[in-house]
């Protein structure tokens, strides 16, 4: 794809996911808004508030003035505090207020994306508090498509409404997470030079990827199938997603992961598998 086609693909993936979130919320009874999700400390309401907050900040809206409680156990870093503040601010809002704000924010953000004059490689500010940095416009759109789809899946699991595991946003998430595999295997898990690790993922979005660690300890990933890998993981796509996004601990998901080969190395890889903050 050309750079402009990539930008459009990320925009379309974001649109499909955020509209799916809105559709999930439309028939939701009031008590379901407080259901816990796999994001520590966050309910269904909180995830929707987070989505609104990020899109609003990208629109240039000022961050809310709010004193965040100091006793929130799931807030363990300055970045977490930055993310939590606009979420906590909305905890007193009613479902009608939140759905109305989401709808209005999506309308404004969609219009901004249609009218955007940025080129794919233009640098823009990624608003993340202490982790803020300049990234390309393409990377920003990819990050938003990834984040919204992952949170859509958080909501679906909490509400027990599965779906969209093979949507455009799912493909963006797969590519984003696979890109981090060399770091997980070679750097974080410390796989020695010459190691080969295969990930065989089944389900609505099935794929197979091989990570190879070269002579100087650097990892790379490709789609080829290696003979007799040191470790081979067999798991379904949703389990892969939950592990890679830190939604479930490896020991809890052990029943859904089959490992062939070096079990000690496999345990180290799974212990460092989460790529999202």
TrEMBL record:
Domain MDMPI C-terminal: 172-268
TM stretches of this protein: none
Gene Ontology molecular function, alphabetical: isomerase activity
Domain Mycothiol-dependent maleylpyruvate isomerase metal-binding as annotated: residue spans: 15-156
Signal peptide (UniProt feature, chain positions): none
Pfam families cross-referenced by the UniProt entry: MDMPI_C, MDMPI_N
Name by which UniProt lists this protein: Maleylpyruvate isomerase family mycothiol-dependent enzyme
